[in-house]
Design brief:
It comes from Duganella levis. It is a multi-pass membrane protein. It contains six helices and 20 strands. It is mostly beta strands. The protein has one domain (10-472): Porin, CATH 2.40.160. The protein has a 14-stranded antiparallel β-barrel with strand order 1-2-3-5-6-7-8-11-12-15-16-17-18-20. The longest helix is centred in the middle third of the chain and has 13 residues, at 203-215. The model is unreliable at 1-22 (pLDDT under 50).
Length: 473
């Protein structure tokens, strides 16, 4: 008996952003409170130091030294209704409902600093959270063999520089140093494996298992009431990339921007820890089951690349009060096909996560209204496509779907040098249907996986609340 119980899905964990983000797939989405107020349509506005993220060429428009420090609080609401999740044997998992699996709130900070060196050169530094997720379904829900919990943390350092060639053309360049850390857990389908070994082709293996337990003084009868084991995993890595920007200023009122952010390669390295202690009340039975499954604490490794993005944006000041802006962002998500997760130093076969993401486009429109000399109001709307192709490729770690974003915001000047930004966004997701089957039979010896099928429907919406402080030296 060599069941490959656990689907180690660190790679899926890195894409589990849909209940903690306002951008599809990987991106957390809100790296600037000012940008959030216009649904991130402000790439060509370059009104504060957060232009480091949207378009580093915009640094050429900022005077003196400026700092912007902020935080966005994500308040998710998501429900899941199971519609027939099963073991690999076809039997129902009979789990408990998934309740309160999304956190009450998640906070992501940001910090940007810019400095104008002379009429042509400016530099800056950005620190922000590009990806983030936290889900805890519990160890008994119907989809536990696909995922029980996940936590993803990341941070990017983005030193940047801009060069203003003349009054019309400016260029920007930045380096991205990106750190990721993922933790996740998943149930091990011991009951399903025992059921498969009770009859048919697996009966001979089952008989051997029973004799082993009896020979060691264990109680084979407890196999009939065996529960799940559990696997816990973690991985972390630093990766490097870059971003480019170009800004064309037509006149005092109109400008256009192009921005590119490269993909980043990651080698997530970590560990896998197995816990068979709660399968039965007999430690001998549990030890024999773990040994027979060839599960030993080990290293874990997965290679992946984040998607690159290309944005085109525009800004126009209509009069002293009104300004309009727009952004179109293309994300090359199709870099993520099948992902192979390796277990170095063991005989474990690879875990294959089927994703086959598609490329996506995000379109946003925004506006500013100068109510008076101290208060500017903002608003925006955006449509964002999901990279997930269909229900068969939707995983509980990423119950993603197309969404609409509706944003409002404001900038209030406290003094000639300081101001605060406020923003609120509501994101409405389409219902996400999931019908994902892990294609590894846990009795096989050449792959890792529970072989489960998770079926259900997710309904999700988010609120984002942002606050930032800006100061000019």
């Amino acid at each position: 008996m060599q069941p490959k119980y656990l689907s180690l899905i660190i790679a899926a964990a890195l894409s589990a952003i849909s209940v903690g983000a306002n951008a599809s797939g990987y991106r957390f989405g809100s790296q600037s409170v000012a940008g959030q107020g216009t649904a991130d349509a402000n790439g060509a506005e370059a009104a504060d130091a957060s232009t480091i993220f949207y378009n580093p060429a915009g640094l050429s428009r900022l005077d003196g030294t400026q700092i912007s420090v902020g935080a966005t609080v994500v308040v998710p609401h998501s429900t899941y209704n199971d519609s027939g999740s099963t073991h690999f044997t076809g039997a129902p998992t009979n789990g408990t409902p998934a309740n309160d699996y999304a956190p009450n709130a998640v906070t992501a900070p940001s910090l940007y600093i810019s400095k104008k060196l002379n009429d042509q050169w400016a530099v800056g530094m950005g620190l922000y959270v590009p990806y983030g997720a936290k889900l805890d379904y519990g160890n008994t829900w119907s989809g536990r063999y696909a995922l029980s919990n996940i936590k993803l943390e990341s941070v990017t350092l983005n030193p940047s520089v801009s060069w203003k060639m003349n009054e019309h053309h400016a260029f920007g360049f930045g380096i991205d140093a990106e750190f990721m850390k993922a933790e996740l857990g998943q149930a091990v389908d011991v009951p399903g494996s025992i059921a498969a070994l009770s009859s048919g082709a697996g009966a001979a293996q089952g008989a051997v298992l029973i004799r082993q337990i009896a020979a060691l003084g264990g109680n084979p009868a407890l196999l009939r009431t065996a529960g799940d084991a559990h696997g816990s995993n973690d991985g972390k890595d630093w990766g490097w990339g870059f971003n480019l920007g170009y800004m064309f200023t037509l006149d005092e009122s109109t400008r256009f921007g192009l921005a590119y952010r490269s993909s980043i390669s990651h080698q997530l390295r970590g560990s896998t820890v197995w816990d068979f202690s709660k399968v039965t009340t007999d430690p001998i039975v549990n030890q024999v089951l773990q040994a027979a499954s060839h599960k030993a604490n080990s290293a874990a490794l997965v290679s992946l690349r984040t998607p690159e993005t290309l944005s085109a944006n525009a800004f126009h000041q209509f009069n002293s009060q009104w300004a309009g802006m727009a952004d179109v962002t293309f994300s090359r998500h199709n870099r993520l096909g099948d992902l192979d997760i390796q277990f170095p130093g063991t005989t474990e076969g690879a875990e294959v996560i089927r994703q086959h993401w598609k490329n996506t486009v995000r379109v946003s429109l925004g506006a500013n209204y100068a109510y008076n000399e101290n208060l500017t109001l903002r608003g925006g709307i955006a449509h964002d496509q999901s990279p997930v192709q269909n229900a068969e490729l939707t995983h509980p770690a990423l119950p993603d779907s197309d969404r609409m974003q509706y944003s409002i915001g404001a900038n209030w000047k406290l003094s000639p040098r300081s101001s605060i930004d406020l923003a609120y966004s509501f994101l409405d997701f389409k219902d996400a249907t999931i019908n994902y089957t892990n294609q590894c039979n846990p009795l096989a010896t050449t792959c890792t996986g529970n072989g489960e099928t998770t079926r259900g429907v997710y309904q999700t919406h988010l609120s984002l609340i942002g606050l930032s402080y800006n100061y000019k030296f």
